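User: I'm new to structure prediction. If I give you an amino acid sequence, what do you actually give back? Let's try with this one:
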Amino acid sequence: MTKPSSSVKAGIAPNLTAAKDGEDSLYAVREKVYMRAVTGWFATWRWVLVWFTQILFYGLPWLQWNDRQAVLFHLTERKFYIFGWVFWPQDVFFLAILLIISAYALFFFTAIAGRLWCGYACPQTVYTEIFMWIEQKIEGDRNKRMKLDKGPMTARKFGIKTAKYGAWLAVSLWTGFTLVAYFSPLKDLLRAIPTLGFGPWEIFWILFYGGFTYLFAGVMREQVCKYMCPYARFQSVMFDPDTLTITYDEARGEPRGARKKGADPQTLGKGDCVDCGICVQVCPTGIDIRNGLQYECIGCAACIDACDQVMDKMNYPRGLIRYSTENAIKKGWSSKEIVAHVFRPRTLIYGAILVLISMAFVWGLATRSPLRVDIIRDRSMLAREVEGGFIENIYRLQVMNMSESSRKFEMSASGLDNLRLNGDREISIEPATIKSVTVQIQVPADAAKPGSHEIFIDVSAEDDPGVHVREKTTFLMPE
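Assistant: Good question. You get back a string of structure tokens that encode the predicted 3D arrangement of the chain. For your 479 residues, that looks like this:
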């Protein structure tokens, strides 16, 4: 009798192809994965990350700060509010540094322990977990879901499926709504709900993001990780023999085979693996980890929790499937030896660069001035002689009050003898506002030679001398 494959034991539909007899198939129809629920140390941490990320995502738009939304990327006003900070388009430098930090963090953690991001914090993983939980609550456990799908369409089945898809749709639309709330004030969106009076781009992104949440987390699931995610394709570049990955201990587990509870595997001439297939049943991508590391593995460690439970029932040591490294399995290293090789030159370099860039990022935020000044010289009238024998240049100043309180600023000029700034030297600016002001700077006609001369315009806050900006510009003396 032919031994059933792991996919059959896992409750996965048989593979169907479009090939005729004697021909190779160009594609394979999806094998639906009926994921089995699992508990354990890694599953707990996965749900901790689900709760943490979703409380953060869904909760931040509701927080208030200084009578405004605490986190708001207001595209219309071209201002990004993040608690006490107000960022402008000129602050794109910080976004670039943040992206660099994210890249190095990905390199660092991947070099240490593989696809930690994919297994615990990736939105695809997080929302698939949420949608699977909804499915289990409505349709039942794995066996009930398989039986329901195989059965004919009845009123009961129609009602159950409608409830599940309705719950998925509600979560998806609320997810899209929350995303838009980061870019459009939440208060305005809430007022628009009763009449569906959203703006065109708002309704587009609610439906677009909500639709793809439904499609990816509810319908496609593991196909996104297997066929669409680029990380699965280039992960091998960041792995090396000392990277911690989810590993099946073949030397200990083989030859696998069924046996009674508590039976001594050595007496039976078998390994510790009882060939129950539960490690396949709990895998969200439907792979068999016993076949070695595969690009489809997202590193969620569900198979570790499942296998440890089986080992406990059989009174065998845990760790038949565990986090280990290629070198550790080959050379039989202890835990201390594994840790010693995990922190190797490659990871130490990544870590050092990550720390340095992070420190620079924090320092940049801490020393960021709440005042910015841009100077544009009036090119329609470069220089002119005015009453009293003075030469005058006109400048337009754009003064940005980047703090969240109203402030008065005082302006002054220096750089040439007897240089003076005409007009009102004080300017009041509302919180997080840009104000344009025109200033006339004059010097005696005999104060400098004809040509271009370097001068400085100083702007400082009256209530805090530390808030001060000095900008350089040029003063033109005519022939």
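You can read the tokens as a compact description of the fold. Here is one thing that stands out. DSSP finds 18 helices and 16 strands in the chain.
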